Predict the 3D structure of the following.
Amino acid sequence: MASSSKKVSNSVMYAVLYILIGVLFIVFKSGMLNWLMTIAGIVFIALGIYDIIKKNMTNGIIEAVIGVVIILGGWLFVEVVLIIFGALLCVKGVSDLIAAFQGSRNVMNIIVAILTLVVGILLIISKWVMLDWFFIVLGVAFIVEGGLQLLGNK
C-alpha cells in the first residue's frame, strides 16, 4: 500500500512540475532559452571542476570550456541554428510543393507544403517571434500533459 501511495505522490509531483514548466514557458517565452543555456553552462562548469578535483584534467578542462562557451556564446549558436533550420524548412516546403503539384495534387499536401515554407521563411526573417510562439505552444502542451496526469491520478 505504501508503494502505491508513493507512486501516486510522485505522479502528482511530476504533473505539478509539468504545469509549472508550462507556465514558465508561456510567461518567459524565448527568454527561457537564456535560463536553459545558463543552467547547462553551469552544469558543464561544475562537472569540469569536479573532474579536475578528481585528477581527470583533460575532461575537466574540456567540460569547463564547453560550459563557458555555452554561457557566453549560446545566443549566437541559437541564432545560427534557427536560420539553418528555417532554410531547411524552406527547402522542404518547396520540395513538397513541387511533389504535390507533380503528383496527385492533394489539397492537404499542398497546404502542409505551403505552411512548411511559410514557417521556414518566418524562422529566417523573424526568428525570435517564431521562437516565442514555439515556447507558448510548448508551454500549453506541458500544462495539458500535467493536467491530464493530475486527472489520471484521481
About this structure: Residues 49 and 85 are 34 Å apart (CA to CA). The two ends are 16 Å apart (CA to CA). The first helix runs from residue 2 to 28. The mean pLDDT is 85.
